[in-house]
Amino acid sequence: MSHEIRILLADDHPMVREGLRASLDGEEGISVVAAASDGQQALELAASVAPDVVLLDISMPGMNGLEAALRFRQEFPGIRVLVLTMHEDREYILKMVQSGVAGYVLKDVAADELILAVQTVYQGGTFFSSAASRILFSQFDAVTAPAASPQDGLTAREKWVLRLLAEGCGNKDIAREMEISVRTAEAYRQKIKQKLNISTSAGLIRYAIDQKLVKS
Predict the structure, then answer these.
(1) Helix 39-49 × helix 65-75 angle, to 10°
(2) Do residues 118 and 53 touch, judged by C-beta distance below 8 A?
(3) pTM as predicted
(4) 190: Cβ–Cβ under 8 A, 6 or more apart, which residues?
(5) pLDDT in tens, 126-168
(6) CATH numbers and ranges of domains, the chain
(7) Which of 23, 26, 33, 74 is nearest to 54 (CA)?
Protein backbone atom coordinates (compact mmCIF):
# COMPACT_ATOMS: atom_id res chain seq x y z
CA MET A 1 0.00 0.00 0.00
CA SER A 2 1.76 3.12 -1.23
CA HIS A 3 0.00 5.63 1.03
CA GLU A 4 0.16 5.15 4.78
CA ILE A 5 -3.36 5.07 6.24
CA ARG A 6 -3.68 7.84 8.81
CA ILE A 7 -5.91 6.87 11.73
CA LEU A 8 -7.67 9.07 14.30
CA LEU A 9 -8.93 7.20 17.37
CA ALA A 10 -11.96 8.43 19.31
CA ASP A 11 -12.73 6.57 22.53
CA ASP A 12 -13.24 7.82 26.07
CA HIS A 13 -11.30 4.97 27.70
CA PRO A 14 -7.53 5.67 27.83
CA MET A 15 -6.63 1.97 28.03
CA VAL A 16 -8.70 1.22 24.93
CA ARG A 17 -7.03 4.04 23.03
CA GLU A 18 -3.57 2.85 24.02
CA GLY A 19 -4.40 -0.74 23.14
CA LEU A 20 -5.70 0.27 19.73
CA ARG A 21 -2.69 2.48 19.11
CA ALA A 22 -0.33 -0.37 19.95
CA SER A 23 -2.19 -2.81 17.68
CA LEU A 24 -2.55 -0.51 14.70
CA ASP A 25 0.77 1.33 14.84
CA GLY A 26 2.55 -2.01 14.61
CA GLU A 27 0.92 -2.77 11.28
CA GLU A 28 2.79 -1.84 8.10
CA GLY A 29 1.02 0.90 6.14
CA ILE A 30 -1.04 2.17 9.10
CA SER A 31 -0.26 5.07 11.43
CA VAL A 32 -2.27 6.41 14.38
CA VAL A 33 -1.85 10.18 14.07
CA ALA A 34 -4.06 11.32 16.98
CA ALA A 35 -6.44 10.13 19.70
CA ALA A 36 -9.53 11.84 21.11
CA SER A 37 -11.66 11.21 24.19
CA ASP A 38 -14.95 12.44 22.72
CA GLY A 39 -16.62 13.44 19.47
CA GLN A 40 -15.91 17.16 19.75
CA GLN A 41 -12.22 16.61 20.30
CA ALA A 42 -12.18 14.16 17.38
CA LEU A 43 -13.61 16.83 15.07
CA GLU A 44 -11.11 19.41 16.28
CA LEU A 45 -8.19 17.03 15.78
CA ALA A 46 -9.44 15.98 12.35
CA ALA A 47 -9.13 19.57 11.17
CA SER A 48 -5.45 19.64 12.09
CA VAL A 49 -4.14 16.10 11.47
CA ALA A 50 -6.20 15.21 8.35
CA PRO A 51 -6.81 11.50 9.02
CA ASP A 52 -7.96 9.08 6.34
CA VAL A 53 -10.03 6.97 8.73
CA VAL A 54 -11.63 7.73 12.11
CA LEU A 55 -12.19 4.84 14.51
CA LEU A 56 -15.20 6.07 16.44
CA ASP A 57 -16.80 4.74 19.62
CA ILE A 58 -20.51 5.44 20.22
CA SER A 59 -20.80 6.00 23.98
CA MET A 60 -18.64 8.98 24.86
CA PRO A 61 -19.24 11.97 27.15
CA GLY A 62 -20.13 15.30 25.59
CA MET A 63 -20.58 14.64 21.89
CA ASN A 64 -21.30 10.95 21.37
CA GLY A 65 -20.42 8.84 18.35
CA LEU A 66 -23.72 9.27 16.53
CA GLU A 67 -23.54 13.07 16.72
CA ALA A 68 -19.88 12.98 15.72
CA ALA A 69 -20.58 10.71 12.73
CA LEU A 70 -23.19 13.17 11.44
CA ARG A 71 -20.78 16.08 11.89
CA PHE A 72 -17.98 14.22 10.12
CA ARG A 73 -20.31 13.55 7.20
CA GLN A 74 -21.16 17.25 6.98
CA GLU A 75 -17.75 18.79 7.67
CA PHE A 76 -15.27 16.15 6.50
CA PRO A 77 -17.00 14.07 3.80
CA GLY A 78 -13.64 12.76 2.59
CA ILE A 79 -12.81 11.11 5.93
CA ARG A 80 -14.02 7.53 6.31
CA VAL A 81 -15.68 6.77 9.65
CA LEU A 82 -15.46 3.26 11.08
CA VAL A 83 -17.46 2.56 14.25
CA LEU A 84 -15.67 0.46 16.87
CA THR A 85 -17.97 -0.22 19.81
CA MET A 86 -19.35 -2.66 22.36
CA HIS A 87 -22.95 -1.91 21.30
CA GLU A 88 -24.64 -4.89 19.66
CA ASP A 89 -28.11 -3.32 19.56
CA ARG A 90 -29.57 -3.38 16.05
CA GLU A 91 -31.00 0.12 16.45
CA TYR A 92 -27.52 1.51 17.10
CA ILE A 93 -26.18 -0.16 13.96
CA LEU A 94 -29.05 1.15 11.83
CA LYS A 95 -28.65 4.69 13.15
CA MET A 96 -24.91 4.70 12.54
CA VAL A 97 -25.32 3.37 8.99
CA GLN A 98 -27.94 6.03 8.29
CA SER A 99 -25.54 8.68 9.62
CA GLY A 100 -23.12 7.77 6.84
CA VAL A 101 -20.44 5.61 8.49
CA ALA A 102 -18.43 3.25 6.31
CA GLY A 103 -18.45 0.32 8.72
CA TYR A 104 -19.37 -1.08 12.11
CA VAL A 105 -17.06 -3.34 14.09
CA LEU A 106 -17.54 -4.77 17.57
CA LYS A 107 -14.66 -4.38 20.01
CA ASP A 108 -14.26 -8.10 20.50
CA VAL A 109 -13.00 -8.62 16.93
CA ALA A 110 -9.55 -10.04 16.37
CA ALA A 111 -6.78 -7.59 15.49
CA ASP A 112 -6.47 -8.89 11.93
CA GLU A 113 -10.19 -8.30 11.30
CA LEU A 114 -9.91 -4.73 12.60
CA ILE A 115 -6.95 -4.10 10.32
CA LEU A 116 -8.91 -5.54 7.38
CA ALA A 117 -11.82 -3.23 8.29
CA VAL A 118 -9.54 -0.18 8.29
CA GLN A 119 -8.00 -1.14 4.94
CA THR A 120 -11.43 -1.86 3.39
CA VAL A 121 -13.06 1.43 4.35
CA TYR A 122 -9.93 3.37 3.39
CA GLN A 123 -10.15 1.85 -0.08
CA GLY A 124 -13.74 3.04 -0.42
CA GLY A 125 -15.57 -0.10 0.67
CA THR A 126 -17.82 -0.83 3.62
CA PHE A 127 -17.08 -3.28 6.41
CA PHE A 128 -19.30 -4.88 9.02
CA SER A 129 -17.85 -7.41 11.43
CA SER A 130 -19.52 -10.81 11.17
CA ALA A 131 -21.45 -10.29 14.41
CA ALA A 132 -22.66 -6.84 13.35
CA SER A 133 -23.76 -8.20 9.97
CA ARG A 134 -25.78 -10.97 11.59
CA ILE A 135 -27.52 -8.47 13.85
CA LEU A 136 -28.17 -5.92 11.10
CA PHE A 137 -29.46 -8.34 8.49
CA SER A 138 -31.18 -10.84 10.77
CA GLN A 139 -34.62 -10.04 9.38
CA PHE A 140 -33.77 -10.76 5.76
CA ASP A 141 -35.57 -13.69 4.16
CA ALA A 142 -32.67 -15.82 3.02
CA VAL A 143 -34.65 -17.45 0.20
CA THR A 144 -37.22 -15.01 -1.14
CA ALA A 145 -36.08 -12.19 -3.39
CA PRO A 146 -37.59 -8.83 -2.38
CA ALA A 147 -40.39 -7.48 -4.51
CA ALA A 148 -39.69 -4.66 -6.93
CA SER A 149 -40.65 -1.16 -5.88
CA PRO A 150 -42.22 0.80 -8.73
CA GLN A 151 -40.67 4.12 -7.74
CA ASP A 152 -37.06 3.11 -8.30
CA GLY A 153 -37.40 1.04 -11.47
CA LEU A 154 -35.48 -1.95 -10.09
CA THR A 155 -36.56 -5.43 -11.11
CA ALA A 156 -37.12 -8.16 -8.54
CA ARG A 157 -33.72 -9.69 -9.29
CA GLU A 158 -32.01 -6.31 -9.06
CA LYS A 159 -33.63 -5.88 -5.65
CA TRP A 160 -32.23 -9.26 -4.70
CA VAL A 161 -28.75 -8.20 -5.78
CA LEU A 162 -29.16 -4.95 -3.85
CA ARG A 163 -30.06 -6.88 -0.73
CA LEU A 164 -26.97 -9.07 -1.11
CA LEU A 165 -24.77 -6.03 -1.75
CA ALA A 166 -26.15 -4.39 1.39
CA GLU A 167 -25.26 -7.55 3.33
CA GLY A 168 -21.66 -7.03 2.24
CA CYS A 169 -21.53 -9.75 -0.41
CA GLY A 170 -19.01 -9.47 -3.22
CA ASN A 171 -19.61 -10.42 -6.84
CA LYS A 172 -18.51 -14.02 -6.27
CA ASP A 173 -20.89 -14.39 -3.31
CA ILE A 174 -23.76 -12.93 -5.33
CA ALA A 175 -23.00 -15.20 -8.25
CA ARG A 176 -23.03 -18.25 -6.01
CA GLU A 177 -26.22 -17.21 -4.18
CA MET A 178 -28.15 -16.43 -7.37
CA GLU A 179 -26.53 -19.15 -9.51
CA ILE A 180 -25.28 -16.68 -12.11
CA SER A 181 -21.84 -15.82 -13.47
CA VAL A 182 -19.54 -13.37 -11.73
CA ARG A 183 -19.68 -11.19 -14.84
CA THR A 184 -23.48 -11.10 -14.65
CA ALA A 185 -23.31 -10.21 -10.96
CA GLU A 186 -21.02 -7.28 -11.77
CA ALA A 187 -23.39 -6.17 -14.55
CA TYR A 188 -26.28 -6.20 -12.07
CA ARG A 189 -24.24 -4.13 -9.61
CA GLN A 190 -23.43 -1.48 -12.22
CA LYS A 191 -27.02 -1.36 -13.47
CA ILE A 192 -28.35 -0.82 -9.94
CA LYS A 193 -25.88 2.00 -9.30
CA GLN A 194 -26.88 3.65 -12.57
CA LYS A 195 -30.61 3.34 -11.92
CA LEU A 196 -30.34 4.67 -8.37
CA ASN A 197 -27.59 7.19 -9.15
CA ILE A 198 -25.62 5.86 -6.17
CA SER A 199 -21.87 5.39 -6.53
CA THR A 200 -20.85 3.88 -3.18
CA SER A 201 -21.61 0.70 -1.26
CA ALA A 202 -22.48 2.73 1.85
CA GLY A 203 -25.04 4.61 -0.22
CA LEU A 204 -26.58 1.34 -1.36
CA ILE A 205 -26.84 0.14 2.25
CA ARG A 206 -28.59 3.35 3.29
CA TYR A 207 -30.94 3.04 0.32
CA ALA A 208 -31.73 -0.59 1.26
CA ILE A 209 -32.58 0.55 4.79
CA ASP A 210 -34.73 3.43 3.56
CA GLN A 211 -36.63 1.10 1.21
CA LYS A 212 -37.32 -1.33 4.09
CA LEU A 213 -35.16 -4.09 2.62
CA VAL A 214 -33.74 -3.92 6.14
CA LYS A 215 -36.55 -3.49 8.63
CA SER A 216 -35.84 -1.01 11.41
Answers:
(1) 30
(2) yes
(3) 0.65
(4) none
(5) 888 877 777 766 544 443 444 445 446 788 888 888 888 777 6
(6) 5-136 (3.40.50.2300), 156-210 (1.10.10.10)
(7) 33
